């Protein structure tokens, strides 16, 4: 509000005047400036003075409000107002200050520039007003000449323009960030998919390498077994053949001697001579012992042949590692080869239908050795064997449990040693569990044994799915 006794300082001239724009009208949208004052003359004079003003080739469009509430309504309807020329004292002594506060806090308009104009400066220092009410300038109407008004408006519009540009840049930057995040998300997803594909490919390569390593191991063992079998089979065949001839020769010799004794019974001298020969060379004892020696030799040769036969499992052409093997099929093959039928005393529980890579005949041989060991361990009327198979994490677990004699703690660490057996000498080769352990190890697996004397044993075979 102006003091009616004061001169209209708004029109006070100064030596240097602002030059107006050319007669050509700009096509750019005008700057919106809100004049808030309860004095009608201020509105009229402001319109008159600012009629020719332009900034950045844009004219001014003045909006008029005569009270705080009217000003707030206009600002709410027109949020793109650049500048508010606000009188302090209107319907109340602090209406202008309250209006400035509500513009910032209630309307949340941080970009509009607020210039307070007053004809009656208050008791509060200017810098405190600017800090407290978030205004941009504070002018006394008596000091606000035309030139100074132009300067204030120019500075305010320039400041508003910068704020708008910053806001637009921030909006574009936010939009760019969103697009960038989308691009990054898409790219990240592509990379994750590629990484997943690479991981799958690497797993396949690892699996193929494992198969190759497995085949190389089996091939090495097969070559060794083939060499041993060849070196043993040749002399074994000769010894077996010679042993048969020796047995036949002994039979012929004893038959001829018996006939000779019958033929000389009527000749006392010859009979006495033959008796002396029999006594001197223990022929009767040799006759009884020779057949035992031949039979023992034959048993030994049979055992050697069985050992070679056990080794031949590694030279079989079926040692090739294949995919698509199923543990239930392998176990049923084992039971079929051993002529075992499932019953109350022999149970099997299969809880795994995953396919895996293996040399099926070799794995069947390994499990067959363990099952036979379980069957042969029975030492009482409690003849029970149970087989279970299940997936445990990334491994296949096959457990073979018997309720037999069990294995002592002193012997349990020897059961996989070659030729170790708790059975009578000659009744077993002692290679069954050794072969089983070698085959399982060649599949990168393990065999764990839990046993207690008189309570039985559990052989747990584990090997990975690869």
TrEMBL record:
Keyword Secreted: no
Single annotated GO MF: phosphorelay sensor kinase activity
Keywords associated with the record: Kinase, Phosphoprotein, Transferase
Top-level taxon of the source organism: Bacteria
One Pfam family from the record: Response_reg
Protein's UniProt keywords contain ATP-binding: no
CDD domains: HisKA
Catalytic activity: ATP + protein L-histidine = ADP + protein N-phospho-L-histidine
Protein name: histidine kinase
Species lineage: Bacteria, Pseudomonadati, Pseudomonadota, Gammaproteobacteria, Alteromonadales
């Amino acid at each position: 509000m102006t003091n009616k006794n004061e001169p209209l300082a708004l029109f006070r001239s100064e030596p240097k005047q602002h030059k107006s724009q050319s007669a050509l009208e700009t096509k750019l949208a005008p700057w919106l400036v809100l004049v808030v004052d309860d004095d009608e003359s201020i509105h009229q004079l402001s319109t008159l003075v600012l009629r020719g003003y332009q900034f950045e080739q844009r004219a001014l469009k003045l909006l008029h409000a005569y009270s705080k509430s009217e000003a707030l309504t206009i600002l709410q309807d027109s949020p793109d107002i650049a500048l508010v020329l606000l009188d302090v004292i209107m319907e109340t002594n602090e209406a202008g200050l309250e209006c400035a506060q509500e513009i910032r806090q209630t309307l949340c308009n941080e970009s509009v520039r607020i210039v307070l104009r007053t004809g009656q400066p208050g008791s509060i220092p200017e810098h405190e007003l600017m800090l407290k009410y978030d205004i941009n300038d504070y002018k006394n109407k008596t000091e606000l000449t035309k030139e100074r008004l132009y300067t204030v408006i120019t500075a305010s519009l320039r400041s508003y323009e910068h704020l708008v540009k910053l806001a637009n840049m921030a909006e574009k930057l936010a939009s760019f960030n969103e697009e960038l995040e989308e691009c990054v998300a898409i790219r990240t997803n592509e990379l994750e998919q590629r990484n997943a594909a690479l991981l799958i490919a690497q797993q396949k390569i690892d699996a193929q390498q494992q198969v190759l390593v497995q085949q190389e191991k089996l091939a090495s063992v097969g070559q060794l077994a083939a060499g041993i079998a060849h070196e043993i089979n040749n002399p074994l065949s000769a010894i077996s053949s010679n042993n048969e001839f020796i047995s036949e020769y002994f039979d012929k010799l004893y038959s001829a001697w018996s006939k000779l004794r019958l033929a000389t019974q009527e000749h006392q001298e010859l009979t006495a001579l033959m008796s002396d020969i029999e006594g001197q060379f223990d022929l009767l004892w040799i006759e009884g012992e020779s057949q035992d020696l031949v039979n023992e030799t034959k048993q030994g040769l049979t055992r050697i042949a069985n050992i070679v036969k056990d080794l031949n499992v590694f030279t079989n052409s079926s040692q090739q590692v294949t995919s698509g093997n199923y543990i239930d099929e392998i176990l049923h093959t084992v039971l079929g080869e051993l002529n075992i039928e499932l019953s109350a005393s022999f149970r099997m529980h299969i809880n795994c239908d995953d396919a895996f890579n293996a040399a099926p005949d070799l794995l069947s041989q390994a499990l067959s050795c363990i099952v036979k060991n379980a069957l042969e361990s029975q030492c009482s009327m409690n003849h029970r064997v149970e087989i279970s198979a299940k997936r445990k994490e990334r491994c296949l677990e096959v457990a073979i449990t018997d309720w037999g004699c069990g294995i002592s703690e002193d012997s349990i660490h020897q059961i996989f040693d070659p030729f170790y057996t708790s059975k009578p000498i000659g009744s077993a080769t002692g290679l069954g569990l050794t072969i089983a352990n070698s085959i399982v190890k060649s599949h990168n697996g393990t065999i764990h044994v839990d046993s207690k004397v008189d309570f039985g044993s559990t052989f747990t075979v584990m090997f990975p799915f690869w």
